[in-house]
Write a structure and sequence with these properties.
Blueprint: H1 2-25, H2 27-52, E1 54-58, H3 62-91, H4 96-121, E2 127-131, E3 136-142, E4 148-153, E5 158-159, E6 170-172, E7 175-177, H5 187-194, H6 208-215
Family: Belongs to the TMEM70 family.
Keywords: Membrane, Transmembrane, Transmembrane helix
Pfam family, one: TMEM70
């Protein structure tokens, strides 16, 4: 009789506690599952998109350029931080020409060197990826703060100058870029970008007299 009472009490307690606990926690697993599904889909789509792009070009000077720019930006930040102390010590000398010389040297290495280095390296293409579905190229360069900058362009957006400028091979959407043919994994992509696969225009060799006779 005692065992039967104990069993009834236990079943009553379990029946009283279990729905309450389930009622409080039944919503949370659903919310967690929804968030986990969204995050997994987001990263899966991102990874799938990156895998669809094919890297066809890599600039071999990319590590060296990054290292030099990091050193230049770090030295400029250190120069700006130490400039008040250097100027305070320089004013104690009392020589105006020496003070001007010190300020010129500090200003050159603090401001001019990083800007000059960025002007030279901002055209250097570190990577080029190709999307075969949209026939789009994605060129990557480095900005002043050593962050990657990507430019999407197609073959129609490329203009090759007759006389290449300094560190300039082509213009993509008006932006000058520097690339080298030997670093392409497939030379056909370089030929398409530079327009070497297009037919030659033999009309460029016509004489001026022939044009005048046609106009008359």
């Amino acid at each position: 009789m005692i065992r039967i009472c104990q069993r009834n009490v236990c079943l009553h307690v379990k029946g009283f506690i279990k729905p309450t606990l389930f009622k409080e926690t039944c919503v949370k697993p659903t919310v967690v599952d929804i968030h986990q599904t969204k995050f997994s889909r987001h990263f899966a789509n991102k990874e799938k998109q990156e895998n669809e792009l094919e890297r066809i070009y890599y600039g071999p000077l990319t590590p060296q350029i990054k290292a030099v720019k990091i050193f230049s930006v770090s030295s400029s930040a250190a120069g700006l931080a130490a400039q008040p102390f250097i100027l305070r010590e320089a004013t104690t000398i009392g020589s105006t020409p020496l003070l001007v010389a010190i300020c010129s040297v500090i200003g050159f290495f603090t401001f001019v060197t990083p800007l000059l280095l960025h002007f030279i390296t901002k055209k250097y293409v570190t990577e080029i990826h190709y999307d075969p579905k949209t026939l789009t190229y994605k060129a990557t360069t480095i900005n002043f703060f050593i962050a990657p900058v990507q430019l999407d362009f197609k073959v129609e957006d490329v203009v090759v100058p007759d006389i290449p400028g300094m560190f300039t091979t082509m213009f993509a959407k008006g932006k000058p870029l520097f690339i080298e043919a030997r670093h392409f994994t497939d030379p056909l992509h370089y030929a398409k970008i530079m327009g070497y696969d297009k037919p030659l225009d033999f009309k460029l060799g016509e004489n001026k007299d022939d044009e005048d006779t046609k106009n008359s």
